[in-house]
# Entry
Amino acid sequence: MSVKLPNPIDAYVGSRVRMRRLMLGMSQERLADQIGVTFQQVQKYERGMNRIGASRLQTIATVLAIPVSFFFQQDASQPLTTEGLGHLAGLEDLSDFLASKEGLGLNKAFMKIANRGVRESVLRLVTSLANATECILARSQAVTDIHSDQRN
# Structure
């Protein structure tokens, strides 16, 4: 029996529902009550396991006080594509991060930045820090490997 994998766009839309819900401090139960489904259904929506229909998505957008387009935005100038979404494990990591105290705090602060240029600068800074960290970890692993080879 094969495992059904969520469609990457459904998973992305679900992750945006989760992100906004968490930003508002709303529980899955409360969202479920307000849109007329069970909290288990909200969980499935957020993981992308169940596709959200158009009328339900409109209801969710109204409850979360955002436009429907929020669920499809990767970049304000680009429509949603699967390019850049990564594999589903990456989206699960994103959901875990957004559920964390640090992730929620970072996202709340980032959304308060009104200037697009400043937001892009912050994104470049964080990307540079992440790349530098990857380089440091790779170098550290290489040194460990060298020492291990020398002992053997």
Summary: The chain has a mean pLDDT of 81. Residues 116-151 form the longest helix (36 residues). The CA atoms of residues 58 and 68 lie 6 Å apart. The two ends are 45 Å apart (CA to CA).
